[in-house]
Amino acid sequence: MAFPISRQKALREWKLYFLIVPSLLLVCTFSYFPAASAIYHSFFDWAGGETKQLIGLDNFKRAFGDDVLWGSFKTVSILIVFNLFKMIPSIMMAVMIHRVKSDRWQYFYRVMLVVPMIVPSLVTLFIWKFFFDPNMGVLNNILDFTGIKTLLVSLDQVFGWGLFFADAPIGWLSQPGLILPSLFIWGFPWIGAVGVLIYLAGLQSIGQEIYEAAELDGVGPFKKFIYIELPLILTQVRLSLVLLVIGTLQGYGLQLLLLGEAGGAGGKGMVPGLWMYNKAFVAGEFGYACAVGMILFVFILMLTYLNNKSVRVEK
Amino acid sequence: MSTAPKDFVGSHKQKDWPKHLIICAFILIELFPLYMMFQVSFKDNASFLRNPWLPTPPFSVVETRQAADGTEIAKTRVADWSEAFGSARPSDPSVKSVEKSFDLSVYKVKNWNFGLKLIGPYIANTVFVAVTGTFFTLTLAILGAYFFARYKMPLSGVLWSAFLVLMLMPGVANIVPLFSLLKELNLLNTLWALIIVGVAGGQVFNIFVLRNFIEDLPKDLFEAAEMDGASHLAQIRNVVIPMSGSIIGTLAILAFLGKWNDFLLSLIILRDKELFTLGVGLIYLDGEYVKQWGQMMAAYFIASIPLIVIFLFCMRLFVRGLSAGAVKG
Questions:
Q1: Residue B98: phi, psi to the nearest 5?
Q2: pTM, two decimal places
Q3: Average per-residue pLDDT in chain B?
């Protein structure tokens, strides 16, 4: 903890305040002011220029009747479920690396996990876009090559999805019905280097005795995971869960680049953040965009509150 | 090493190789995009279609065919891998003769020239933004963290919660007013806007991490420095910075990566082609109608090179720092 300081000494040390002033100034200008401005402008009909007109709660009324907005909340909830599922491989990977006997191999695997991080995330995104390309893309090539496509086509005929056809390449990002599945496949095998390293750090704190005791009791590998490893990395898992939910809820870069400003064919990939972006920078309705942003903000705030509460209870 | 049996956490009965196999399989899939990026960057669309998976063999094949009016047309294409070891086969019945020859020009180095020319300026802009931004982010964050960590000054509790609240506040609602604020400050379409907004956005997280770290430094060091009449700035320079090299390094890498990967803000702010950062540049490249995948992949690879350099030098720091930081936070 910081030293307590007497009033006299604090007066003598007044110059210390100069150290915090630059950060404070920046944060006030570029974080607090825009936030206040967003609240203020959500009550206006505003196109981003000088002229604006106070319209009270009209923006919010309009938002509550906005089908696209509520559809986008539905989409984002599905994406959150997807992303929760996508956390599993990272945890499994961390546990497996942790159980490898040789330290040298463990270090090697950690390095190999970090290697893909040298690719800028944007580039990864574009490479995936290339994978999804109907004619030249890697995904369709693999499906053709392994015969999975034939399987998908016959499944399609049985269930009548109308998505896969034997004589046409699969349009991953261009068919409305395939946009959500594409967003699910995206990033396969869903291993996040940062996540794995964080879980590994948690696993490393498990004492040797615990494993030896488990060994004596004849505990199998799966039970070891449930009773020893999972409880000990639960803090890290919960942390990444919270970050993931909030990140998914407010993220829209992926959808913007993969599917475009309108959320792809049929707007199936529209998420709230993208709708806000679209309203502001495509339609020029800044006031309405602020209102959409406020609604999203309230959702995130509620989630943060719930999370803090549940964490405190368990402590 | 002691002579005692080596400690490990796995089961004594269980074999290790299945784990290695699964881990390696996953890592190979993880590295697959990297491999594709590299090998496609040497191809043009025609040779990519012929052979999407493997690198091109260093042979070219000249096919001569008889056109309808009797003249002979020679066409050059790349060889398949089967042809590289055996003899070349005609690709369809109308081909009269085929000739295989060793040819390094099947590797389209032109793609790389094109990519470099195209995104070289963008990389320069991004390096400028990321380096300047990282420097100022950390400088200001160290000063701020020192303020919070050194003494419990009056009001520091209030200021601290003012910073912490921002951690919970989502940035997404801010982007529209931020745009109009930058417009009013005449910062639209400048690189400085990216730097300043980045520095402001980085303050909370970095101050948070650094404060915890500085508070854990031995207090005697600060007291000794104070006895010697060191000012606060001198204490930061001579005590804080040397003692927290690893955490500063890790934070710097994270900040740099964040700025390198950022594209949403630059997409909104930047209009002039000369000012584009990597993110916007790549997005515009992606918008081209006829896509030359080879050129694009070369450009992507070039975009990764600065990160590869950083990775080579700081890998150890990064892997360690991330693990250590995770335990603390």
A1: -125, 150
A2: 0.83
A3: 82
**pLDDT tens for residues A199-229?**
888 888 777 788 888 888 888 888 888 888 8
B49–A41 C-beta distance less than 8 A: no
Residues of B in contact with A34 (CB under 8 A): 174-175, 177-178, 181
Report whether A47 contacts A284 (CB < 8 A): yes
- pLDDT (tens digit per residue) in B78-103: 887 777 777 777 667 777 777 777 87
Cβ B179–A48 below 8 Å, yes or no?
yes
Q: Is the ipTM of this complex over 0.95?
A: no
Give the chain B residue nearest A13 (alpha carbons): B153
CATH placement of domain A63-134+171-314: 1.10.3720.10
Instruction: Please write the tens of the pLDDT for every residue from A38-87.
Output: 889 889 988 877 788 888 889 999 989 899 999 999 999 999 999 999 99
Residue that the structure tokens 């002691």 belong to: B2
Q: How many other CB atoms are found less than 10 A from the CB of residue B168?
A: 14
Rounded to an integer, what distance in angstroms lies between the CA atom of residue B185 and that of residue B179?
10
CB within 8 Å of chain B, chain A residues 136-195? 136, 138, 141, 188-189, 191, 194
Ranges of each domain in chain A: 63-134+171-314
